[in-house]
Write a structure and sequence with these properties.
The protein is of the alpha/beta class and 307 residues long. Helices cover 42% and strands 14% of the residues. It is globular and about 70 Å long.
């Protein structure tokens, strides 16, 4: 990267919150942002991978690491799944520096089981951290970003949410829910300069290491993920509503798209047999397109009546 590019992607004067930043991806994101001048709130409950327990050690260690490198950071040990705790995470930034510019929603837990064997408390717990926790912290930060007419928010989804994975119904539901949250917030944030994007990372962390073959782990470095997170958090980024798949040096955009479809005509009597006969045309993705907002998709349907 050139010196000019490095200056352009600096974060001097910016205040960032990274949730789940005591280890893994969150720690990597926080260290990169801090190294480029951002002031950091390091949030981490310090619990186990399943969310149970808690310790201040993880967040405090990352704060110490940032300060030792000459940066500024404060620790927060609240759970994102508690609305009051989420508010305290944001308040920590306001108390220390009077603003919040960047929010990286990274905190997460795993409680994997096949759906038939999954206790509902495990389903609820995973949604509470990934989906509701991201919503709670974003909701607490949102009015401050609106007042400043500036904000960068990054959500963390997963291939398990975008495409499905056995034994992760709770995790997959939460992760795809974050895409829906982003899609609505991109409509509301734009007028106040708040951009929101989502990453779908593949990296070796304490949550994922047991899932990957050992020979792949050296290639799944969190730094690959943090590079795109830093870009999405920067003033240089003008994107909003994007889903970026990233891992092992691979970067790609993922989208929800809709086929061209079949229109039978206003007032047509449609039968199940007609659907069966046209199933191939209905599901043909050869001319699929993405939509920027729900009403664009609805307008497509209404458009058939005025052709």
């Amino acid at each position: 990267m050139s010196a000019q590019d490095s200056r352009m992607l600096a974060f001097s004067g910016r205040v960032a919150i990274v949730t789940g930043a005591g280890s893994g991806l969150g720690r990597s994101h926080a260290l990169l942002l801090a190294s480029r001048g951002a002031k950091l709130v390091i949030n981490d409950l310090g619990g186990a991978v399943d969310g149970r327990g808690g310790s201040a050690t993880a967040a405090d260690a990352v704060v110490a690491e940032i300060k030792a490198a000459g940066g500024e950071a404060v620790a927060n040990h609240d759970s994102v799944s508690d609305p009051a705790g989420a508010a305290r995470i944001v308040q920590a930034a306001l108390d220390a520096w009077g603003r919040v510019d960047i929010l990286v929603n990274n905190a997460g837990i795993l409680r994997d089981k096949s759906f038939a064997k999954m206790p509902l408390e495990d389903f609820d717990a995973v949604l509470a951290v990934h989906l509701l926790g991201s919503a709670y912290v974003t909701h607490a930060a949102w009015p401050h970003m609106q007042a400043a007419n500036y904000g960068r928010v990054v959500m963390t989804t997963s291939a398990a949410g975008l495409y499905g994975n056995f034994g992760q119904t709770n995790y997959g539901a939460a992760k795809l829910g974050l895409v829906g949250l982003m899609n609505a917030l991109k409509q509301e944030g734009g007028k106040n300069g708040i951009l929101i994007n989502t990453i779908a990372p593949v990296a070796a962390t304490r949550m994922t290491e047991p899932l990957f073959p050992p020979k792949l782990l050296p290639h799944l470095q969190p730094a690959y993920i943090s590079a795109v997170v830093a870009y999405l958090c920067s003033e240089s980024c003008n994107a909003t509503g994007d889903i970026i798949s990233v891992g092992a040096g691979y970067y790609a955009k993922a989208q929800i798209v809709e086929s061209e479809g079949v229109f039978y005509g206003a007032g047509a009597e449609v039968t199940p047999e007609m659907i069966a006969a046209d199933w191939g045309r209905i599901t043909d993705m050869g001319k699929a397109r993405a939509y920027g907002a729900a009403m664009e998709e609805v307008a497509k349907i209404f458009g058939y009546f005025v052709k």
